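Subject: Sanity check before I submit

Could someone independently write out the structure tokens for this chain? I want to compare against mine line by line before I put it in a report. The sequence has 330 residues.
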Amino acid sequence: MTILLGCGIGFVVWFLVTYLLAGLYTVDQNERAVKTIFGRAERIPGKTTLSDPIAESLTPEERERYQYPQVRVIPPGGPYFKWPWEKVYKISVATQTLNMAYDPEQPEANSSGTMLDAVTKDQLNTGLTGQIRYRVSERNLYAYLFGVKQPIVHVMGFFISVLRERIANFEAPAVKDSGPGDRANDISTLTGVSINDLRKNLRDLNEHMDRECQSSAARFGITLDASLITGIDPPPEVESALAAINTAHNQVSSDISLAQASADQKIVQSRRAVEIETLKAHAEVEPLRAMAAQLTELKKNGPEVLEAYVHNVRLTLFNQAQHAILEVKR
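---
Independent answer below. Compare away.
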């Protein structure tokens, strides 16, 4: 009897430890959890990723392919309880940083994950360096846990393919040309050298990558927060040629800028000289106009008034003159 009682107590203790205490769990602040029952994740009835805003960037074809059910996400906190036939998957949703040349399947590829190769539109093999920031999307945990076998591999492959396609077809944005000065300030746009264009438009390139990768959350359950391409290095054999081209363009740009500045200065000086001469002419004409108006008013009072005025003016001039020459009639 004692043995049976001890076995019963031992079974109860074993059951409590195995199925009750071991069923308690917590979720950390930077984690989210999904629970499966007999291997099937708890789902929200009638809800899929297509009903979530993360699917807005998908094309109609992609909407048919990437349609995942929405699962119940267990928020941070606890303790929570699970039965033995249930399993809990915990996922970190903290933002992580990764070298964009890193290959999860072959770490030795891309110069051991330090530089990514890409071909430009003028057939130059250039090296790209930079980083990407990503985090697991808690709004599509089903894709990350169950829909894609290796999500980070798919995301890196998707990112690299988009980046290489952009590099191969990149063209510098058109610049509005309003005059010779603008052409001098942006003369390098006339070169057509894709590496120069890429270097000058790194910000546009990064913004393009952010836009194109918005669908990664709906595709793979990973959100790309930002891509930061920091370096574009040409092959060593063309580095010196590019340096010579850039030096020549800088010299030409400097010469054009100096010529434009000299021309602008001469134009300003010419305008100023015209203004000064115009003012002088006005200053000489105004007294004559005033005298003509005065003589017109005197003439209105009678011809003798005008003759008297002329006689007085002559007397004044004779008083100021040292010599007088008179015409003698013969």
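---
OP: Matches mine. For the report I'm noting this point. The chain has a mean pLDDT of 80.
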